[in-house]
Design goal:
single chain, two-stranded antiparallel ribbon, elongated, repeat, Cytochrome Bc1 Complex, Chain D, domain 2, heme, about 5% strand
Length: about 290
């Protein structure tokens, strides 16, 4: 005689007869569509094992009936891509950097290639898109230490700045006016006030007037008579609101006392001729190129 199935008093669902520590298992089978889908995936996986490489073997792995090899396919796709790029890369190599920008198709390719090179080599310091970060200058505005024309940008990329490796690197050093005793502390304070006055921020008019004389005698030869900067010397403008090491009085005084001097590696010899040209074009087209 068949035993009548027990039903759970709370849910009304039949139990399986299994019980653990007073907890009874309910007989809630999975929906049939789910079970059939599960079986179908098992069948599909078996078919996949047969058609494609899958099982490890002593000499490598099973090749599969179709003989598919994604590594070979990838290498072929890369070879095809290189062949398509070769025409443009050769043309960039043979073309003067400034002339690249006059060819719309060549310009588009150079900017795309330069962006890749920039992300791989320059973005860790100058930020993505040349936005700048910390004491590394932005390359997307129109404020340039050594000039923003494309030939000037290319030269800087090739030879770098104060790197001690390339004899043609851009190199101009600001004296330590305070640490070396060139200026007295009160003269530094006066110069700070004068520099602040260039952007209408001076708090001591008398000191600023005295600082104008000190500035003319010690600073104008590099930074210009009105603090407009001299790009050929890598001397920044002081009459705008752009500061690399900070524009607060204490920061300006620290820079006069013992200046921080940036260093940039020379990329000539590290990157090939085409990559350097594409980098120069990319940076020149970030928005601040002159």
């Amino acid at each position: 005689m068949a035993t009548k199935a027990e039903k759970d008093a709370v849910t009304g669902v039949e139990t399986t007869g299994h019980e653990w520590d007073g907890i009874k298992e309910l007989n809630n089978p999975l929906p049939k569509w789910w079970v059939y889908t599960f079986y179908a995936t098992i069948a599909f996986s078996v078919l996949w094992w047969v058609l494609y490489p899958s099982w490890p073997w002593k000499s490598g792995h099973t090749g599969g009936v179709l003989g598919s090899n994604q590594r070979v396919e990838l290498e072929q796709r890369l070879a095809d891509a290189r062949a398509l790029q070769a025409k443009w890369l050769d043309e960039i190599k043979a073309t003067d950097t400034a002339a690249i920008e006059k060819n719309p198709e060549l310009l588009q390719f150079a900017v795309a290639g330069g962006e890749k090179q920039f992300k791989n080599n320059c973005a860790p310091c100058h930020g993505l898109g040349g936005a700048g970060q910390g004491v590394y200058p932005t390359l997307a505005d129109d404020d340039w230490l050594w000039g923003g024309q494309i030939d000037q940008i290319e030269y800087t990329i090739r030879h770098g700045i104060r790197n001690g490796q390339d004899p043609e690197a851009r190199d101009n050093v600001m004296p330590s006016f305070g640490a070396d005793g060139i200026l007295k502390p009160e003269q530094i304070d006066q110069v700070v006030q004068y520099v602040l006055s260039l952007t209408d921020r001076a708090t001591d008019k008398t000191a600023a007037e005295q600082g104008a004389t000190v500035f003319a005698e010690n600073c104008a030869s590099c930074h210009g008579e009105k603090g407009e900067g001299i790009k050929e010397m890598g001397a920044p403008a002081l009459n705008d609101a752009i500061w690399l090491y900070g524009g607060e009085p204490a920061q300006i005084a620290a820079q006069i006392n013992r200046p921080k001097l940036g260093v940039m590696p020379n990329w000539q010899g590290r990157l090939d001729e085409t990559a350097i040209k594409m980098l120069a074009v990319y940076v020149h087209n970030l928005g601040g190129g002159q």
